[in-house]
Amino acid sequence: MAAIALSRLSKRFAPGAPPALEEVSLEIAPGEVFGIVGRSGAGKSTLIRCVNLLERPDSGRVEVLGQDLMSLDEAALRAARRGMGMVFQHFNLHARRTVAENVAFPLEVAGMARAERERRVAELLPLVGLEAKRDAYPAQLSGGQKQRVGIARALASGPRILLCDEATSALDPETTAEILALIRDLRARLDLTVLLITHEMAVVKSVCDRVAVMEAGRVIEEGPVFDVFTRPTQPTTRRFVAEVIGHSVPPGTLSRLPQPGPGEARRLVQVLFAGPHSTRAVVSEASRDFDVDMNIVSGRVDEIAGEPFGVMALAAYGAPDKLEGALGWMRSLGLHVTELGEAA
Ligand SMILES: Nc1ncnc2c1ncn2[C@@H]1O[C@H](COP(=O)(O)OP(=O)(O)OP(=O)(O)O)[C@@H](O)[C@H]1O
């Protein structure tokens, strides 16, 4: 059974306005960290708010842990919402409450007795590394510490699901990495399912198992993070992926490349290495076997979801048919070879 099953969700905020969501269907498995990425206005916030029905879709079905949320009455919906914690971009802390009081707030609202609230807060603060800040006020905390409070508060009612709405977008890269590591750690320790939305592919790369890419209210691509990064099929996804892995070759570099000799052609290509061939000496093999010269213009090796992955720009020189043969051979190994324009 999926932890979250969204089926054909549609939402329009005003008649005639473009749809904020259009027929969005997603299934998120228990224990997954699932990312939704998209530009501003793509519909990510609307979608995540539909998961706990802070926003009601016009049509479609929202199932969480097997429960059809749209069929619940107010009381049952409140109970279902306690099974889902939410973390916000701007933390949404009460300035005049201490860390402990902020974390305890949802428990207070739910009517939990003070002694039990205190016991629960004493369990939660060490989970997010904030025992020492128990009595501090938000203004005395760094951004990362504020978000740790936000996370502890989201976990107060012992949810099985954590919804993160741009949880790291207000943080610097180092703090972002810490918070993402904390989310992954909590996922494992508390057996959580995490749904997060972000406009940053770097967040997806470092924390998610699967990802859906949204554009204009629709999911345009979806899959395991490694697959989406190494074989993006949609132009928007390619642009997102390029932000993280990069592939551009500086124009100055191109103009300094040697011209092809007589009878030679030059092909400028980007090669994505992923999986079993990522460590094979493909460039030297292709050069030797097809009698071409390959000049590495740029390159980088990385890891996504624990799998090796590389991207390289090559200027290849040789007889046109030999070049075609070499590039075809590389493709036959499963490498993703794309022209960077500029055929000579
Ligand atoms: N409460 C609302 N009333 C009217 N229109 C809304 C409302 N909330 C969102 N929209 C519109 O719905 C579309 C999707 O917005 P949404 O906030 O879900 O996108 P997003 O991908 O989360 O973008 P951002 O990162 O900027 O929040 C946008 O066109 C937005 O203007």
UniProtKB/TrEMBL annotation:
Alphabetized UniProt keyword annotations: Amino-acid transport, ATP-binding, Cell membrane, Membrane, Nucleotide-binding, Translocase, Transport
One function term, GO molecular function aspect: ATP binding
Entries under Gene3D superfamilies matching the protein: 3.30.70.260, P-loop containing nucleotide triphosphate hydrolases
ABC transporter domain ranges (all copies): 4-241
InterPro entries the record matches: AAA+_ATPase, ABC_transporter-like_ATP-bd, ABC_transporter-like_CS, ACT-like_dom_sf, MetN_ABC, MetN_ABC_transporter-like, NIL_domain, P-loop_NTPase
SMART domains linked to this entry: AAA, NIL
Pfam families given in the database record: ABC_tran, NIL
Full protein name: Methionine ABC transporter ATP-binding protein
Organism per entry: Sabulicella glaciei
